[in-house]
Amino acid sequence: MAVKIRLSRVGTTNNPHYRIVATDGRNKRDGEILTNIGSFNPINSTVVQFHEELYQSWLAKGAIATDSVKKIYRLYKKSSTTVAAVKPVAQEAVATEK
What we know:
This protein is an alpha+beta fold. It is built from 2 helices and 5 strands.
């Protein structure tokens, strides 16, 4: 069984949302899944939720990520490092005001 990490479309007409899922490569796009790894909103280009530990464990087991999922993962890593860099600065500012 070839496991793929790919997108599964949810949402309504003209308002797409995608789930990042691990599934058998032979299944349909919106068919049976093994696990839900995260979700993505393409309208805002934002990663709503992403479980990095699940993503890494599936890759370690031999799953193959699609190009779209790899791109979303890079977007997630970029946004998570930006948020992590901003949080300590904000906390220091609050600490110095007291």
